[in-house]
Amino acid sequence: MATYSRTDTRKGGRTSGLAIAGLVCGIVGLFILPIVLGPLAIVFGAVALRQTGSAMAKWAIGLGVVDILLMIVMFAVAANNGGSFSWHIG
Fold first, then answer.
1. Which of 50, 58, 69, 86 has its CA 20 to 30 A from that of 15?
2. Is 59:23 a contact under the CB 8 Å cutoff?
3. Is the pTM value of this prediction over 0.85?
4. Residues 6 or more apart in contact with residue 18 via CB below 8 angstroms
5. Are 20 and 44 in contact (CB under 8 A)?
6. Using one digit for the tens of pLDDT, what is the confidence trace for 30-78?
């Protein structure tokens, strides 16, 4: 008969709080304040990557780069439209 115990601990690495913070900054930066949250995501992700090497840290860095690229594209579009940027749907 098998017995099950809840005292077993996972033998993997712990998720870094910095990786989570970087991932959240990267995701939120896609929608608001990408000029601030993009670099924060990259910094948090880079520090977490050095500490743990987790995939979440790599995603944070990637999303931070996407945030910065998105901001550059939005600045370029606004510059070509006389300084304004607006969405027109329909």
1. 69
2. yes
3. no
4. 44, 45, 47, 48, 51, 57
5. no
6. 999 889 999 999 999 999 999 998 899 999 999 999 999 999 988 888 8
Residue 40: enclosing H or E segment and its boundaries? helix 34-51
Crossing angle (nearest 10°) for helices 55-80 and 17-29: 20
How many angstroms separate the CA atoms of 87 and 16, rounded?
37
d(CA 67, CA 14): 27
- 31/29 Cα distance (integer angstroms): 5
Count other Cβ atoms within 10 Å, centred on residue 31: 9
Tally the residues of the chain: 90
Find where tokens 């989570």 sit: 20
Whole-number Å distance between alpha carbons of 24 and 36: 13
